[in-house]
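Collaborator request, handled under Task 6.
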Amino acid sequence: QVQLVESGGGLVQPGGSLRLSCAASGFTITRYTINWVRQAPGKGLEWVSTITSGGGYTSYADSVKGRFTVSRDNAKNTVYLQMNSLKLEDTAVYYCQRSGSRGQGTQVTVSS
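Structure tokens returned to the collaborator:
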């Protein structure tokens, strides 16, 4: 069945970096558009980034543009989110999702 498993979260200081992974199974990532979304404490889901099916075109929320990069490794069937210059306001649970499915999330905490 379709499964998405996020990993790579953790505690990092402001200005630091993390790379999140989204390992997919039950489908081929190149055939689906994959989104990264996040949920900060007490807030709703916020779209972060998208990598499209096929050509893998990418897009970003203004709040992360220039700092985050989404990519995929087709051989590993995995999507990544490289996060640089992290800010306190990036603290959230990060999820990868495709139509009808979302992973369990990985916690990112940015704190000094």
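The cover message to the collaborator said: "The chain has a mean pLDDT of 96. The chain is about 0% helix and 50% strand. Please let us know whether this matches your experimental observations."
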